[in-house]
User: What shape does this take?
Amino acid sequence: MTPPKRKTSLLDMLNPCLQGKKRRCGRPTPEDTEQLDQYLLEVAAGLFVEHGYAGTSVDQIARKASASKQTLYRRYASKEDLFKAVITNLTACVVHTMKETPLKNPLEELKHVMCLLLDLTLQPMALGTYRILIADAYRYPTLMEYATQTIGEPIDSSILRLLKAAEAAGQIRQGLADTTTANLLSGLITGTPLEQALFGKTPFTTAQERHDFFERGWAMFIRAVGTAPA
Assistant: This one.
C-alpha cells in the first residue's frame, strides 16, 4: 500500500530547497530567517487573538506553525517575550513612519500619520490585541507596560513632535502644541471608531465612510487649533 503523501506546510515552502534555488540545503540565508520570523509572529498573533493570552501556549503556536518549540524558544525566551514581539511587529510600520516624518509640512504630515493611526486602530489584529490587553493586563501588568512603552509613548511623542513643528511654522496657534492637544486629537480621530469596534460593531461599512469621518474630524481639529479664526 502506498503511504499517503505528507502535506506541505508553509514552513516547508519557506525552505530554500523547495524554491528552486541552485544551492545546497544548509544554513538559511538572512532572507529565509526573516520570512520564518514573520510567519511565526503571524501565526502567534492569530492564536493570541483567537484564544487570548492565557489561553494560548507555546505548544499550540508551534503545532499551528508546523515548527518545533525549540525553533520558537531560540527566538523568544518565553510566551511573554513572544507576545511582546507580536505587539512590536504589529505597530512597527506606523511607529517608524511617525518617527521619520521629515517636517517639510508638519500639518500635512500630521494629517497623514493620523490617517495611518486610524487604519492601524481598526485592523483586526490590532483590535484583538487591544482586547487581550484589556482582559489580561491586570493579571500580566508587564504586558501593558510594554505596550505603553512600545506603542503609546512613541505615537504620543510623534504627534507632539509634529504639533510643535506646526506651531513653529505658524500653522497652528501658539501655546497649543502640548500633550493635551495631542490626546484630544487622538481621541477625536480614533476614539469612537475604536470603541465601536471593540464592542463588535462596524464603525464604517465602506472606505468612503471612513474617509468622510476622518476628513470631518480633521476639519474640526484645524478649526480649533488653526491660525485662522475658528
User: Anything to note?
Assistant: The first helix runs from residue 10 to 13.
